[in-house]
Amino acid sequence: MLEEKAPLGTLENRYPALFELRRAIWPHYEWAADRERYRQGIAGFLEHVILFDFQRFIQVILEATGNAVMFVERQSAEGGCSPLDDRLLSCADTVIVVSLDHQVTEQTVNANEVAAVRRFLMRSGTALIVCPHHDVGAPQEQSAREVEFLHHGDRLVSSQQRLGGVARSLLAELGFPVENRYGLRPAAAPDGGPAPLDVATHLDTPGFLVGVETFNLHAHLPHLWVPPALEGRVRVLARQLIHPSAPPHPFVERGHDRFNAMLWMPPDATRAGHLIVCDATIWSSAFGGLTSLNRFWRNLAQMPASYP
Length: 308
Description:
26% of the residues lie in helices and 15% in strands. By secondary structure, the chain is of the alpha+beta class. It has a 6-stranded mixed beta sheet, covered by helices on one side. Helix 3 (55-65) crosses helix 9.
């Protein structure tokens, strides 16, 4: 509800309205011009663009497992809340938390949710996948925000769009305060698809990324920053190349040519389940790389109950 009711006069930290998307990339969304069928505000963008983009993933999982994906909105448009509780988590082996909430809405997990997630992760064969999105425009200085804006080049994203508060709070409560930083433009391959991933195959003992060559080409992807104190407990399974001819970005100027795209925290003495962090658009069909994404989704769906 907080996302849908963001005032259109505010540029920062809100999603575009459907009519704004139609205007920015005309004529690609003219099928949504019918005001009787498609709400033209932010609610319409969330319904007909964001949620629609996950339909292919849902279909792939149904085909691979024979089980329908349970899709739950933690905060509904009507103001209701469906928390991460035992009732919800007890009927699943793999739980994906897609955190597309703006940080200004101050959404965080509560103590009961954290306790339920910890109980879920005590079960062998479980996996929790936490997915924030980009964090664009964190600096207060306008000049710094302009640099980030020019780097990613997406006119639908304003000078500041900081997402993923629920994801960050959940990870921190679980003892892994990973942060989604920046909105970096990924590199493309010569054929126009995503550039190949840099996969640490020697670390990927469960085989999450077997046969997975790329992720996608969303215009602004986060670097999944790992605190130095966690480097021995967190495995960086995949890095994605930054577009070499994109305008400058401070992260690139510090010597980085790729960003962390997927992290894995293996089970340990306190947790039987797996903890994975990746970008929210990994489950979307809108930004290319579908052949490899389909393989990634099926890998997760077809993993045996007891991961190595």
